[in-house]
UniProtKB/TrEMBL annotation:
InterPro entries: Ub_conjugating_enzyme, UBC, UBQ-conjugating_AS, UBQ-conjugating_enzyme/RWD. Accepts ubiquitin from the E1 complex and catalyzes its covalent attachment to other proteins. In vitro catalyzes 'Lys-48'-, as well as 'Lys-63'-linked polyubiquitination. May be involved in degradation of muscle-specific proteins. Mediates polyubiquitination of CYP3A4. This is E2 ubiquitin-conjugating enzyme. The keyword Nucleotide-binding applies. Pfam families: UQ_con. Keywords: ATP-binding, Nucleotide-binding, Transferase, Ubl conjugation pathway. Belongs to the ubiquitin-conjugating enzyme family. One of its GO terms (biological process) is protein polyubiquitination. SUPFAM superfamilies: UBC-like. PROSITE patterns: UBC_1 (PS00183), UBC_2 (PS50127). Its EC number is 2.3.2.23. It is an enzyme of class 2 (transferase).
Length: 160
């Protein structure tokens, strides 16, 4: 079961690049703010997201969904983040991921968010959630950077 130790730890020892806290005092719903990592096309952006934890956490992973528009190969068009550590535990029926790369109960809010920040800096275009973004990332970096820059600008104006 999720506990307040996670929140207390993040408040006591904040990590650079994001902030996270309960949404509406619901331990299973977290509001997240990710700051675009330096030296990436996302630099300067403020990206809001939600982490929704299942009732049987930590046996199953949370779902992370950006509320701020973001153009990225590993974020689908609805904002849902698609990275290995947020995939259900066990073997990948498609063979793209090792079971050791998928969800494990040792992951915390901090490890999830650090993985997402890493994903922003280094997309996995081999298994994309947004095929258009993956194609642009591989074949048309200028277009990719232009579309990301638009998301960064929008994130700055919607930041409150």
């Amino acid at each position: 079961m999720l506990n307040f130790n996670l929140l207390t730890e993040l408040q006591r020892k904040p990590t650079e690049g994001f902030s996270a806290g309960l949404q509406d005092d619901d331990i299973f719903k977290w509001a997240v703010m990710i700051i675009g990592p330096p030296d990436t096309p996302f630099e300067g952006g403020f990206f809001k997201a939600h982490l929704d934890f299942p009732r049987d956490y930590p046996q199953r992973p949370p779902v992370m969904q950006f509320q701020t528009k973001i153009y990225h190969p590993n974020v689908d068009k609805d904002g849902k983040v698609c990275i290995s550590i947020l995939h259900e535990p066990g073997e990948d029926k498609f063979g793209y991921e090792k079971s050791s790369e998928r969800w494990r109960p040792i992951h915390t809010v901090e490890t999830i968010l650090l993985s997402v920040i890493s994903m922003l800096a280094d997309p996995n275009d081999e298994s994309p959630a947004n095929i258009d973004a993956a194609k642009d990332w591989r074949e048309n970096k200028e277009k990719f950077k232009r579309l990301v820059a638009q998301c960064v600008r929008e994130s700055q104006t919607s930041y409150d």
